[in-house]
TrEMBL record:
Pfam family name, one: SBP_bac_5
Alphabetical UniProt keywords: Signal, Transport
Protein name, per record: ABC transporter substrate-binding protein
Keyword Signal among record annotations: yes
Family per record: Belongs to the bacterial solute-binding protein 5 family.
Compartment list: Cell envelope
Amino acid sequence: MRSLPLRLGALVMAGALGLTGCSFGADDPAGGGGSADATLRVANPTPVVSLNPFAANSADQPTLTVLQGVFETLVVRTDGKLTPKLAESWTNPDPLTWQFALRKDVTFADGTPMTSADVKASLQALIDGKGPLAGLWAAVTEVGTPDGHTLTIRTGTPLGTVPSNLALLSIAPAAKLTDPAFFNAPYGTGPFKVSSFTAGQRVELVRNDNHKGDKPKLAGISYRYVPEVSGRVTALANNEIDVSWGLPPDQLAGLRENKDLTVSSFPTYANYYIWFNSSRKPFTDARVRQAMWYAVDFGKINSSLFNQAGTPAKGPLPEPVFGSAAQNPYGYDPAKAKQLLAEAGYPNGFSTTMMWSTGCCTNGNSFADAMISDWAKVGIVVKPQELERATWLDRLLKLDWDSTMTTGSTVTGDADFSLARLYLSTAKRNGYANPELDRILLAARQEIDQDKRADLYAQAGKIVWDEAVGIFPLDLSGNVVLRKNVQGFTPTPNDLPDFADVSLG
């Protein structure tokens, strides 16, 4: 099969970003020289539209990528295990109570000490923000602060996911959380703080001299949104940027041949998926959703567009995620698709739409073209809707769509983050509601025994897969391209490249 044409995204931003799509300008500190005054120049493939990790963008990968160097969490996942960060330790004195002992030597970037009141306020802000992560904490009945460095979380039902959920809770100063202006240049306890932010274009981080951990080897990190793949590739070759990631596989071979660059590829918790709005006809019928899956030759598309970019998915969760389990595969079967459409009352097909955000996904536009072409062969006419990310996210959360294409990451490494957060009926994320699935997911969330949790998530994954709540074609490999002088970068499977420990040699 010939390579499908790569229809690159819009949003060229020529005036703001220069001819290659990412000129950092003469006033920007350039990388190189090994100086502690150097700034790492990063070209991110997806725009950062908000720096508020407590509301609508609390699970947004671009937001989390930038802010992981700014805000810290009580818990982190290291080599698949949960370990303390801002917490020193935790206990589970009874099935409904978790107690955390907090570090006493931590200050925010403005010099004020971090206390349990800040942690409580941060958790409450996440819950009150009613964003994508709020559902993880639905069982919480009380957050207590017995003293300045002790936090208790009480739940109405057992919640075995509290530590893994806390790996995503940014800790911010309680006094600032109600000030919208704070999120224009937020700070936390992390090694960096935000010095300036232009939504959809750039984020500037500078060193936090009050950080109590290891001091950053960089003076700052400069993020620019560069939508054009060609712009990022040229900028890497021309030493206009130091780092980029999420490049399509057809670009990586040439970059690997460049002696000035290092290409790092690694498995991740991320996957590609296409959701159907199961609350909107014709996708209220599982047979229609299944027909959409059978109608597409994903094997052919994957070999053409995604060579070395990932592996065919075996379930709705990537294999490295705790709780994932292999399911029975859907094959390419247009005749089966037509049969299912006829049984559902659509013998002549139907017309619908599919939306995605500009720059959302590796080879996203070409992938959409290929699926739309195959769907047309069985009578399904799909109108593409490529949207700016803020518009896409707003419509996504309002369920104002027929189907949507995106990539996502189970950033905690725990199945609950994706399965329960996205597929519980109460989540209202994709219009799908199934009482049996709800029962299984809630039981898994409450279960303390990890082996039993894994079995329950395997059952839940089978329902999501068999009911074709979405199509899950690909588990994604990550890639980061760095100039040779970028040292100390360690890939992580959570699909959030972290540059806090990087230096420039």
